[in-house]
C-alpha cells in the first residue's frame, strides 16, 4: 500500500501541476508543514494542535526530528495532516539539504500543503533567526509567504498584560517586516499548557482566513520547482561572483608575490650597498691610521735627530766614523734604520773618547771592524726590507681575495636571483619583465663595483706618487749634503799631503758618510780628533 502511495506521489510530482489548484468544495482536509530552527518548539506545537503526543519533544542541542514525519488527526471536524521537519532552518544546513527535505515534506502532503507554520521562539530575534528566515524564502520562493503563518512559542515567557506585538514585533524591524510579508498572520502558543484549546482555535481561525484569501489553493510542487529554478539562478550568480572574487584574490596574490620579490631585491641591493660602504670606510680608516703612523714616526725621527745634534755639539773628540749606506726603503722604515745607526754612532763615539790614547793602527783596525759591523747591519736591514715586501704582498693578496669574495658573493646572489626569477617565470609570464629589470639592476651594480675598483686603484696610485715625492725629496737632501762634503774634501786633502794615499782615501770616505748624517759641526770635531786642523763653514 505504501509502495502504491509513493508511486502515485512520484507521478504527481513529475507532472508538476499548476501552482494554485483548488480542492473539491467538500474537502475537510487541512495539510500543514511546521518549519523552524532546532529547539524552536515545532514538535511541541504539533502535539498541542493535535491534542496528544504524536511527536517527541525534548530540549536537546541537536534536532529530535531527524527526517520529515507526518501525523494525522481530527480537530474541530477537520482532518489535519501535520508534517514535522528537522532543523531545516539551522545555519549549518546547506541550501541543497533544505531543498531536499522540503521536497520530501511536500511529497508527504500530496498534492501540496495548505499552510506553512514558521515556528519562532519568543525572545531576541538574533542574526541566526534572520539567516534562517532568509534560507526559508530562498528555498521556497517569495510566494511561499502567502501560505505562511508565524507561530511564536513559549508564550509563558510574556509578562501579563503585554502582547507579543508590543514586546517583540514592534521592537524589531526585521521581525515586523517578516510578519508584514506573511500578511500580518501570527499567533502565540504556550506548549506547557497543552489543555488550552483557545490557542489552537485561534490558529485554525487564522488558517481558515488564509485559505479563504488564497481561494482554497495550496502550495504545489510547481511552485517549489520554480523556487528551485530561482535558487539555481541565484547559485549561478553566487558562483560567478565567487569566481570573480577568486580571480581578484589571485591577482592580489600575484601582485603580493611581485611586491615581495621587489622587496627582497631591494633588501639584497641595500645589503650589498652597506657592505661596499663598510669596506670603503674600513679602507679610509686604514689609510688615515697609516698616515697618522707615518707622521708620528717622522716627528719622532726629527726629535731624535735634533737630540743627537745637540749631544754631538758637546762632544769634543770622535775616534771613529761610521759609513751610512743609501736608504732604499719606504720613508718610515728608512728613518727607523737611520735612527738605529745614529744611536750606535753615539755609543761608538763615547767608546772612542775613552780610547784616544791607542795607536793609529788600533784605530784603523777598529774602523775596519766597524765597517764589517755596518755590512752586517745592512744585511739585517735588507732582511727587514724583504719582510716588509712580503707583508705588503700578503696584504695586497688579502685585498684581492676580499675583492674576489665580494665578486663571488655578488655572482652567486645574481645566479640565485636568476634561478628564482626563472622558476616564477614558468608559472607567471608577467614576471618576465621583472627578470629583465633585475638583470639591468645587477649590471648597474657591476658597473658601480668597477667604478669603485677604478677609484681604489686611483687612490693607490696617488699614495704611491706621494711616497715617491717624499723619497725623491729625501734623496735630494742626501745628494746636497754629499755635494757639500765633496766641495770641502779638496781643501782637506791640500793640508794633509804628508798622509799616505790609502789613509787619505779612508779618511775622505769616512768624512763623506759622516757629513751626510751629522752635519758640518760633527765633521769639524772629527777632523780635529785625527789631527787635521780644518774648519768647515
Automatic annotation (TrEMBL):
InterPro entries: G_AIG1 (IPR006703), GIMA/IAN/Toc (IPR045058). It holds the Pfam family AIG1. CDD domains: AIG1 (cd01852). GO terms for molecular function: GTP binding. Residues 224-469 form a coiled coil. It comes from the Eukaryota. Residues 27-228 form the AIG1-type G domain. Keywords: Coiled coil, GTP-binding, Nucleotide-binding. Belongs to the TRAFAC class TrmE-Era-EngA-EngB-Septin-like GTPase superfamily. AIG1/Toc34/Toc159-like paraseptin GTPase family. IAN subfamily. This is GTPase IMAP family member 4-like. It comes from Solea senegalensis.
